[in-house]
Design a protein that fits this description.
The complex is a heterotrimer. By secondary structure, chain A is α+β, with helices and mostly antiparallel strands. Helices cover about 30% and strands about 25% of the residues of chain A. In chain B, about 35% of the residues lie in helices and about 10% in strands. The chains are: A alpha+beta, B alpha+beta, C alpha+beta.
Chain lengths: ~280, ~150, ~725
């Protein structure tokens, strides 16, 4: 027995806030309100009828969230509405977080990069989100605002499960703070094709005083590979790092790839990261 | 709601979450913009929003309000007189023609002097099943060369 | 010494590349495709489909019905509930039996999109055990046996016997414009405006379905956003649906699929399993070829028998061999029916034979290039059906030209040096491969005689108007047919017009398929132009019309006198002419990801005569790109008999960044019965790339016999090769 139906636009509502404060008030008042930014993911869900939500909060009017800044302490502050195209064009990003520029370059085509936002990528929390490993490897902090105040969540604690984040219903992702990074940054995406692709495996890493390595699409959430980092840091042979990595990832078979391929490619990426950041 | 399309103001009655693509095609009767997938993969619905290419199938019309929209109808008029349009015909870059409006819109903002690799990247969000893309690159390069020659004169 | 192309007489229109006739409208965005058309009172249609791959429909129920909703079920069909094509086995709407998981069951129409989308329908289906494994299926819709010489004699003469099995997957046509039609009820019938390749196929199907005489079923092809075979047969289905809704509601109905529905429900390329057993002498000459071809037809017959036919007719490749046996079968499974896709069975079987040739060379320890040189068909040789080839047989010239242009031998040596180092360093590996192939133009065997296509030319005050049912779907039909007519009449192209393919206006010039439009219909039109010229004498069209009144010249297909075909034994002249081609593809394999990047492509193809070189090159470039993706990327993931990745996000058609630069060379070995020597060009380009890619992978050290060779499938081989090196 099968039910066939898809939602009608006319049954949906869009709230258009005048200011950030107004947006936060609206969120406080309505648990079922879904923030909407570049719509590059959300509109696919609407079109194919797979989206459950009916009420949306339009973030486009919030121009203050579109800035890329650098604080005196060297922290790079990326507004939630910063687009991938902005990341590509920004000298600040190029200097402080080149692996984000690398990620942005491989997302979608120009059309998607002009619309898709960093906040959307984080909030959507797809395990294959391309900027997520970048922020994980950068030890970024997600800034969440609500009518009651501001909360800072380390990115390592932000992703709770498959498409689940630490954002509460009354909160908005307003900014991502990236501390100064010492060391070589590295990024690689392995997609279903050379452009307009969803990642089969995506990885970002930093090698300096410390080592960070993060992966997407090999677990229900984008994740730091702590055990592999540790193995690399203790100068164990690469095969040990691979063993560690395989123990901490939980890849699956899906429409785009297989668990076996994801696991072997995650290891191969770790090797490549290690040899290219020497 | 007022929309500024190809320099003309259109008054439309639309739900703010309607896709810009549907408003353009159905209400404004600008059917040059095509739908190929409805999920931002094929680029057939590419239009310029404040000069930047976007997929009109992923843009709520609310996001286009108060901004300048350019569709294929605004590129070179009904004659298709834009140099890119002429070179697309000349080089065989339009076969079935369905991806062509979106492809042209994306091509129209490729900076002068772009190399082949940059042209490929700029068009990476536009799928064409007919040409294998080679003719498209030739057309973009030809239009540029013609413009450069005209300037030189 | 290979024969040289004959130097043809100088021509003024044919062989030039004027702007395509509808080009300006396409680039201006004013070309009107079906979804761009408007009709007063237009309703939108929606299709409710089965969800189990096999079973029975027990009933259905519907939630709240919005006012103005129209519903059509099988009970509303006035004629026969079948899509008339080769066999009447496929219902237009399920009555009880369900044979695949995307079968149309109910049709809805409403004027408001949202209201239509929100109607909830529940189907009660009783599932039965489905046959999803083509190897296990014992239900064949067609078997063909080709026998030449004596197989056991051939094997007895062999020094070595080489065997192998090769498989290919589904492929989606992925025309960028999805399937769509509008049906308009008329006072005594119906008119269909549609995105389609074959107006008269749709007419034939609707005549049966609606129980109307042909003159009351009018089919008009509108601008069509690509077909590649995908709009050969399926439009009969969707047009039938729209027509039923239109007749029931009394209003025009538009049915345009979204991408997902299009991928789920419409036909794809037949998956294939081809086995070769080949006898070969030490010097490389082929003594015996035994070939077994199995195609997955899917749930209904559709065009599978003829796809199989073309498949087996190309299964031995462009090679000479005296003792040949080819057995082909098309088996039924509970997946959506497979159907026409550019190449029509030939890409599958030529993939197999060309990869097999590479393995034969390996087994003998001889150069695969030499193996092909030794065995390539030459003028005077016979094919597997005993067809003796004429002077236009250009397999060797294509091979030599592609080898020269691609610097194949030098590149191969350089790559082997490179790989020796890369295997140690772990860097990217390279490979270069080639494939030699051929493709018959037009319908198989007696097909053209049975079709008896007609074309007509109407005199206008300023020139002539072409009346054909051949459709423009991107390949340039309007333009090349006009060029042929203009050339024959000695007029400038501007004096030729082309009527829209409308069954009320144009004669049945057969379907727009099988690389037949230029060679077959073009030749009929050329003869029309000859007759018109004779009729005009020294008069201008205006003078003629003033004196004699209207003039329409109609001609019919005329079989070349020398052509003979025995359909029972599959002997004789399978095709009027063959085009030949050779592709050389160089690629790079990233050992980190097992991704393959095609780097350089050389495609040399003999098409008899390029009527319009730019359009012809466009066919070659586009077909080559599709063929490369067939080999490397395009994977239809079937789960429980249903395409699980029916979204553009998850089905990897190539983007600009996936498509390599191409070098195309057109050779012209004219065919005496084609217009100005032309043979077909549409399909052949997709035959060569997949074996060339896989042979390049083999050159790099990967033994691959199944495509698509996606990274998931080849990573194990890449890893073990590296493991062996370190």
């Amino acid at each position: 027995m099968t039910t066939w139906t898809s939602p009608a636009i006319s049954s949906m509502r869009l709230e258009r806030p005048r200011s950030l404060a107004h947006a936060l008030d609206l969120l406080e008042a309505d648990r079922g309100l879904t923030p909407m930014a570049g719509c590059t993911d959300l509109y696919v869900g609407i079109h194919f009828g797979s989206l459950k939500q009916r009420r949306f909060l339009d973030l486009q009017p919030l121009a203050s969230l579109r800035k890329i800044q650098k604080r005196p302490d060297g922290t790079l502050v990326l507004g939630a509405l910063v687009t991938y195209s902005q990341c590509l064009d920004s000298p600040l990003v190029a200097r402080a977080l080149p692996m984000l520029a690398s990620a942005a370059k491989e997302i979608g085509g120009v059309q998607i990069r002009n619309r898709g936002t960093l906040g959307g990528n984080l909030g959507n929390a797809s395990p294959a989100g391309d900027t997520l490993p970048v922020f994980l490897a950068a030890d970024a902090t997600v800034v969440l605002a609500s009518a009651r105040g501001v909360r800072r969540v380390p990115i390592s604690q932000f992703f709770l499960g498959y498409r689940k984040t630490a954002r509460r219903h009354n909160e908005l992702i307003t900014e991502i703070e990236v501390p100064p990074i010492a060391g070589k940054q590295w990024f690689r995406k392995v997609g279903t094709r050379a452009a307009n692709a969803i990642s089969k495996v995506v990885a970002a890493g930093v090698r300096g005083e410390g080592i960070t390595f993060a992966l997407g699409a090999v677990a229900p959430v984008a994740m730091r590979a702590y055990a592999a980092e540790c193995a690399l840091g203790s100068a164990l042979p690469l095969s040990e790092a691979h063993r560690a990595l395989r123990s901490e990832i939980t890849p699956i078979d899906d429409l785009r790839s297989t668990a076996a391929y994801r696991a072997r490619t995650a290891c191969a990426l770790l090797t490549q990261f290690w040899s290219e950041t020497r | 709601m007022k929309l500024r399309i190809n320099g003309t103001t259109f008054r439309v009655e639309a739900h703010p979450l309607e896709r810009l693509l549907d408003v353009l095609r159905i209400q404004c009767k600008l059917t040059g913009t095509k739908e190929g997938c409805g999920e931002g993969e094929c680029g057939a619905c590419t239009v310029l929003l404040d000069g930047e290419p976007v997929n009109a199938c992923l843009v709520p019309v609310a996001h286009a309000e108060g901004r300048s929209i350019t569709t294929i109808e605004g590129l070179g008029g009904t004659e298709g007189s834009h140099p890119l349009q002429r070179s697309f015909v000349e080089q065989g870059a339009a076969q079935c023609g369905f991806c062509t409006p979106g492809m042209l819109i994306s091509a129209s903002v490729i900076p002068a002097g772009a190399r082949r690799e940059e042209i490929r990247c700029a068009l990476a969000g536009n799928l064409c099943r007919c040409t294998g893309y080679s003719a498209v690159y030739r057309a973009v390069e030809l239009a540029r060369a013609k413009r450069a020659r005209r300037r030189a004169r | 010494m290979p024969p040289r192309p004959r130097r043809p007489r100088p021509l003024s229109v044919v062989g030039t590349s004027p702007p395509r006739l509808e080009g300006a409208a396409k680039v201006a965005g004013t070309a009107r495709y079906v979804d761009d058309l408007e009709f007063p009172g237009l309703l939108l249609g929606r299709t409710i489909r089965s969800t189990v791959p096999r079973g029975e429909l027990l009933g259905w129920s519907m939630g709240r019905r919005p006012r103005g909703l129209h519903v059509v079920s099988a009970a509303d069909i006035p004629g026969r509930n079948a899509i008339a094509l080769l066999e009447p086995d496929q219902p237009c709407l399920v009555r009880r039996e369900i044979r695949h998981a995307a079968e149309p069951v109910l049709l809805l129409a409403h004027e408001d999109r949202d209201a239509l989308a929100s109607v909830a329908v529940e189907l009660r289906e009783r599932p039965r055990k489905a046959q999803l494994d083509v190897r296990a299926s014992r239900s064949f819709c067609k078997e063909i046996l080709i026998e030449k010489g004596n197989l056991s004699r051939g094997f007895a003469r062999a020094d070595r016997i080489v065997e192998g099995e090769y498989t290919t997957g589904h492929q989606e046509q992925l025309y960028v414009e999805t399937q769509g039609v509008i049906a308009v009820p008329e006072k005594d019938g119906v008119t269909i405006y549609g995105s389609l390749q074959c107006p008269y196929y749709v007419q034939k199907a609707l005549v049966e379905l609606l129980s109307l005489p042909p003159e009351r079923v009018r089919i008009i092809q509108v601008e069509t956003g690509g077909g590649f075979g995908g709009k050969e047969e399926y439009p009969s289905m969707i047009a039938g649906h729209a027509a039923l809704l239109a007749l029931k509601s009394g209003r025009p109905v538009k049915l345009v699929y979204d991408r997902s529905e299009d991928m789920l429900a419409t036909t794809k390329r037949h998956p294939s399993i081809v086995r070769h057993k080949t006898g070969v002498r030490r010097d490389g000459s082929l003594t015996a070829m035994q070939i077994d071809v199995l195609l997955d037809a899917g749930a209904y017959v559709t065009l599978s028998p003829v796809v199989l036919s073309r498949g087996v007719l190309h299964a031995a490749g462009p090679y000479r061999c005296e003792d040949v046996q080819i057995l082909g079968r098309a088996a039924m499974t509970n997946t959506p029916p497979n159907g026409a896709f550019r190449g029509f069975g030939a890409p599958q079987t030529q993939f197999a034979v060309e990869v097999h040739m590479e393995r034969i060379a390996e087994a003998l320890g001889i150069d695969p290039l030499e193996l092909r040189r030794r065995n390539a068909l030459r003028p005077g040789d016979t094919t597997a059906t005993g067809q003796r080839l004429g002077a236009d047989c250009s397999a060797l010239p294509c091979l030599e030209s592609a080898v020269r242009r691609s610097r194949f031998v030098a590149r191969r040596r350089a790559i082997e040096k490179h790989n020796a180092k890369a295997r140690v360093s772990g860097g990217p590996l390279r490979g270069i491969g080639l494939a030699l192939f051929f493709h018959g133009s037009g319908f198989t065997g007696a097909g053209e005689v049975k079709l008896a296509s007609r074309a007509a030319l109407e005199l206008t005050p300023t020139g002539a108007r072409i009346l054909v049912a051949s459709t423009e779907i991107g390949q340039g039909t309007r333009t090349i047919l006009s060029q042929i007519v203009a050339e024959e009449l000695g007029w400038p192209l501007s004096r030729i017009e082309v009527a829209d393919p409308d069954t009320r206006e144009v004669p049945d010039s057969g379907p727009t398929v099988a690389s037949r439009t230029c060679m077959i219909v073009g030749e009929i039109l050329r003869r029309c132009a000859q007759s018109l010229k004779r009729a005009l004498g020294r008069m201008t069209p205006r003078q003629y019309l003033a004196k004699n009144g209207p003039l329409v010249v109609t001609e019919q297909y005329d079989r070349p006198k020398s052509m003979h075909w025995d359909d029972v034994h599959y002997r004789g002249d399978a095709y009027g002419a063959y085009g030949y081609g050779c592709d050389v593809i160089e690629l790079e394999i990233d050992p980190v990801t097992a991704e393959v990047r095609p780097a350089e492509v050389t495609a040399v193809q003999d098409i008899g005569r390029a009527i319009h070189p730019v359009l012809a090159a466009g066919q070659i470039e586009g077909g080559t790109a599709q063929g490369i993706a067939f080999a490397l990327a395009e994977e239809v993931v079937m789960r429980d008999g249903r395409m699980a990745n029916a979204q553009l996000t998850n089905y990897a058609v190539p983007t600009p960044l996936d498509t390599p630069p191409m070098q195309v060379e057109i050779l012209e070995f004219p065919y005496g019965h084609g217009p100005f020597g032309a043979k077909g060009v549409g399909e052949m380009p997709i035959d060569g790339p997949s074996p060339a890619v896989v042979n390049a992978l083999r050159h790099a050290g990967l033994d691959i016999r199944d495509i698509p060779a996606v990274p998931e499938r080849i990573a194990g081989l890449v890893d073990s090769m590296r493991g062996a090196a370190t």
